[in-house]
Every structure is written in C-alpha cells, then in structure tokens.
Amino acid sequence: MNPFQSIYETIGESQIKELVRYFYLEVEANPSLRKLYPENLEPAERKLFLFLLQVFGGPSTYSAERGHPRLRMRHFEWKIDSAMRDHWINAMLTSLDKLKLEQNVKELMMQYFIQVANHMINHE
Ligand code: HEM
Of 33, 73, 88, 105, which is least surrounded by CB within 10 A? Predict the structure, then answer.
C-alpha cells in the first residue's frame, strides 16, 4: 500500500477537514495565491477536502464527482513557478502546524505535499 494511504486512518476525516479550512484561510490572506481562485472559495475547499480524503486512503467521493484527478493537467491554466509553489507550500505547512499531529504522520504529509507541489510547476 502507498504509505500516504494510511493517513486517513491515522488522523481521521475531521483533521483533514480542519487542515483544508486552515489552508483556505491562508489562501485568503495571501494575495499572490488569492488572485488565482474564484471569488467564492467554498467549492475549491470542498474539492481539496474530497481529494485529500481519497489520496490519504478514505472514501473516493472525489473521483465519483470529478473523475480521474489529472491534477497536473487541471493546474495548467495557472502559471505555477517556484515562487507560486512556495506560496502554496507555505500555506499548507502553516496549516499543518496548527493540527496536533504526531511527528511521523506530519512528516509523511509534508513529504506528500512537497512532492505534489513540485510536480505542479509548469513555468520557469
Ligand atoms: C503548487 C501550487 C499550487 C497552486 C498555485 C494551486 C492552485 C489551484 C487553483 C487556483 C485551483 C482552482 C480551485 C477552484 O477554483 O476550484 C486548484 C485546484 C485544485 N488543486 Fe491546486 N494548486 C497548487 C498545488 C496543489 C497541490 C500540491 C495539490 C494536492 C496536494 C492541489 C490540489 C488541488 C485540487 C484537488 C484541486 C481541485 C481540482 C478539481 O477537481 O478541479 N493543488 N489549485
């Protein structure tokens, strides 16, 4: 099993929900990120929540609603350079710090987010 798929069982749905809530508060507070998103952040928050539930080993509602994630392709419409990746990662790591997680699960999640965020870069 992919190690990331043990995360849901370890931390549960409520902490994934909290993480995503914190993340979008960070997005709201960061003009560089905020300008990429539509005015209403709720649908984006729900998509990220359902996506993370799925990749962390929980219910696959995300794919039932959205189909195959094809995450890199879905991000092509925004110019994501290393500075934008850093904004995203900082927002996520700040949010992660607000949860009270065991160090090993926190590190696993950091590893996941950093890996995927690097993969989203589509611009120099
Ligand atoms: C690296 C910098 C990144 C930027 C600037 C970025 C930005 C965005 C934006 C603007 C949206 C559109 C939200 C909406 O209107 O619905 C989006 C969607 C999404 N992002 Fe990112 N993102 C980044 C990285 C990531 C990473 C690392 C993940 C996963 C770990 C991720 C997961 C998602 C998901 C699941 C969606 C919804 C896709 C869909 O079903 O349409 N993003 N992102």
Answer: 73
The dihedral of CA 61, 27, 122, 5: what is its sign?
negative
Q: How far is the CA of 71 from the centre of ligand 1 (A)?
A: 7
Q: Could you tell me the sign of the dihedral formed by the alpha carbons of 61, 2, 74, 36, in that order?
A: positive
The answer to whether residues 109 and 57 touch, using CB atoms and an 8 Å cutoff, is no
* Region 3-119: CATH code: 1.10.490.10
Residue having the nearest C-alpha atom to atom 13 of ligand 1: 44
pLDDT in tens for each of the 124 residues of the chain?
799 999 999 999 999 999 999 999 999 999 999 999 999 999 999 999 999 999 999 999 999 999 999 999 999 999 999 999 999 999 999 999 999 999 999 999 999 999 999 999 999 9
How far is ligand 1, taken at its centre, from the CA of residue 49, in Å? 11
Determine the atom of ligand 1 nearest the C-alpha atom of 43.
Answer: 16
